[in-house]
Every structure is written in structure tokens, then in C-alpha cells.
Amino acid sequence: MKLFLLTPAILLAFLVTAQEQKPHHLLMRTTGKLPAISYGLGEDRLGGAKLGYIDTNVLMRVVDSTKDMYSVQLSKFHTAFIDRAYVKPDSAQKEKPFYLTGSFNVKGDSAFDYVGISMEERLPYKSYMEINPSRIVLEIYGVQSNTNWITQLQSLKEVKNVYYNQVEDDVMRVTIELQHRQHWGYSIFYRGKYLVVKVKRQPEKLDLRFMTIGIDAGHGGTNAGTGGISAKYEEKYYTLLFAKQLEKLLKKKGVKKVMMTRHSDTTFDNKDRILFFQQENPDFVISLHLNSSNNKDVNGVSTYYKHIGFRPLTQAVLKRMLELKLNEFGNVGSFNFVLNAPTDFVNCLLEIAFLSNTDDEKKILRSSFQEDVAKKVVMGMTDWVKSLK
Fold it and tell me: Which of 90, 105, 194, 249 holds its CA 20 to 30 A away from the CA of 147?
């Protein structure tokens, strides 16, 4: 066997060649209304499973593409997909071999707690909730830690502890422990050179009368929703009837702040509904819909959530709805509906019954049933709030 010695000249040539063969990354920035990154190319009627929404102007390393999506390299061992419409080229940016974090600043103001993470670049991230104990977990991609202190101030009211681990060479995991078992929501965004987690506090008074409640009448305008068997109108018409009954009952019970996404048959894009609620900052939101199936025998009531920290409200509402002698279609988690996706506020999707089922449809058309649904939803809300005391 013949051995070859690597002279400095040969070694230099080898390194140059290896560098030239390094895969080229097309650098882009997120843009548009509520850009989101997806786990893969899977699809269903609600779209593919998503890591979550992400701020605008976040740096993305594009490594491949399909007709509608870009494949992005989040870190060495993590990839994701983003709709091509939600990124724009950044030809002025030069990619660095790595980016660093700096110090953390954790404090509160009169309304929220904030976790600020000093960053060299606006890098991609994902977050999720944990329960028992309640925690927010944030994973930041393409970054190495240079964080040597985390300053936490006495002004905090909901955030209990903040710490991090460098779980991979280029992935940092930040854990935010909360004071209360119920998650009330959080928002993530970049502010200057800080990645900020804005944490909602538990309301001072756990009483519906002093809380801000959002009601979403599903569909509307050009988005008609499903049709029924003998029903004269589409889903959008009936969801508004249920929403108005709920609004009326809440106000009758003394709830001072009730907000509706629509009061008439108007078109309101689902992402705009999210932006509306993000701006108005409700304590929780309930979205009212009617279900449908190709199988006319399928019937019943169901509630839906995406984030595990928001499940308790959906369970309480479903339990009360079942008192209306509806069959149980289920409590569904990790649901990929647009209005379940935000982490900013507690939310519940209620599919009241099936317009495609004869017996369910008869109930839906009755004004007395619409009033009964409002009563049971309010009872479910009340049960949930009482359980938190």
C-alpha cells in the first residue's frame, strides 16, 4: 500500500476545493401577512402541519424549492418549508458561518412580562407550550450561545424562571416557567436586536364580567362555509345567529367587553381576524362553526385546540354542550385551523353540530336551540374560569 503525504500546498488546494463545493444558500427574508413555516409538504383541506407563525424580516436559508414552497435550512439538522409568497430575496446580506446570542433581559411593565434575548441576526424559531408545570419553550435555530447572564427584575408577575440550554451545536432552547397552571398566551417578535417573548398575565379578576371575550362567527361574505340538507342558507348565516345569541347573553350577564369579528354578512379574511384579535388583546376567543360530512349519518358536537395549554377551555365547553343531548364527536387537539394557530390568546373552536345530518340540522334551524347553545357555552366558560381559582 502506497502512502501519500499531505504537503501544505496539497492541503490548501483540498480545502479550497471543498469550500467551492459547499452547497449554495439563497438568502431570503420573511414578508407578508403572518408568514408561517411548515414541517413538510403534507397537505389537507386546512393546509400542512406548521411549526407556527414567524415574524417578518427573518433570515431564511433557501436550499431547494417546489412549485409553491421553498425548503429552508433552519440549522444543521433541521429543515422546514415556507410558501414562496412569504419570502423575498436579500441579495445585500452575506451569510456568516454562525450567529451568537447575547444577554437576556426579563422584566414586566404595567400589563405584560417580557423575555428579551439579544441576537446578532433575526433568525428563525419555533415555540410550544408545556403543562404540569406550565412552561413556554422557545427553540432558536442557527445560533450559538454567548449568553452569560440573564437579568430578571422584580416587575415580573407571570414569568417565574427563565433559563436556556444549547441543545445542539446551532440550536438554543429557552424555557420560560410560568406562575399559573393556565397558559394565557404569548407573542414572539423581533424588536431591534432582541427576540422578544411577550407573556400575557392571568387576569386580576377571574370573573367573566371583568374579562375581554372575543366571539368569531365563522365564515361570512364570500366565504359561505358548508351547506345543509334542507337549510335555506349556508353556514355563514347560522354561525352569525349563534354568535349574536352568545354576545347577547354575555352582555346580559354583565360582561363589559365582548368583541365580535362580524355583525353582518361581511367578508373577513381569517388572517385579518387574527390580526384584529392580536390588536384588541382578548382574554380568550371562541370561534363558532357548523360541521359537515359526506357521510349523512355522522353527527355531534366537537371542540378544537392546537396548543395544549389552551385545551382546558375546549374541554369545559364540550362538557356543557353535551348536555344538549348531542352526540360527542370529540375534543380534537393539534388542530390546524387558522384561528387555533395563534399563541397570543386562549382560543376554542366549537363545531356546534352537523348541517349535513338531518337530526342535527333540525336543531340548528331552531331559534330555541341557538339560545340553548349560547347558555351552554357561557356555562362552559364559567366552569373553566372557576376551575382556575
Answer: 90
